[in-house]
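Hi C.,

You asked whether I'd gotten around to modeling the 236-residue construct. I have! Everything is below, sequence then structure, no commentary in between.
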Amino acid sequence: MSRLFEEIDYQVTEIGAVSLRRRHILSLNQDVWEVLLGDEHLMSSLFTASEIALAKLGLAALGDAPETGWDVVVGGLGLGYTAAAVLEHESVRSLEVVDFLAPVIEWHEKRLVPLDPPLLDDDRCTLRQADFFALAASGEGFGAPKDVILIDIDHTPDWLLDARSGSFYSEDGLRQLARHLKPGGVMGLWSDALADEAFIARMKAVFSDAWREPVTFHNPLQDRPFTQTVYLARRV
């Protein structure tokens, strides 16, 4: 049996201490990897259904892929489950994953996370240490316009990890992001809560189409279902 607890890495960043740890949950007889920012739980390998759904729903909303394939950006790396689900799709030509926290990128480079195969084993994938929200607000953005931009950073549009991202969820912030999508391109956003109708209204003010998809999964620790949300929007 694995040790019951192991702190794999701990580093101080400008927005707080970030740590990667592994716990063995006796009741499940399972090892679980967790990412924490200070005392906040950012991600657990035990709960990945909605992170994977973010990728699958975002790509499905694009329809048929062109012969050249899709170009994808993922904002927020974490344990990498959204990015891994993107790479499962053969029509993806390129994937750039942007994360503000250098230690998180290091964990993937050093293969400290449980993904198999590792993201960087796929030549289509690059990891970039940068402020996703600053790039979204800039004219340069992510280089050439993308087919889909998927975001999994904050807990919800109004429950933020850091105040720097707050303006992103406004109509102006969404409009700035939309500039970096190709015509017909899709934005996807993960949220750790039920749908926020006010945020959907803001998306509809910017995009030609906007909707939300509930993602319900079983929480084995509480033995009950839990629902999170994937927001989706399409540029004209």
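If it helps when you're writing up: The longest strand covers residues 181-191.

Thanks,
B.
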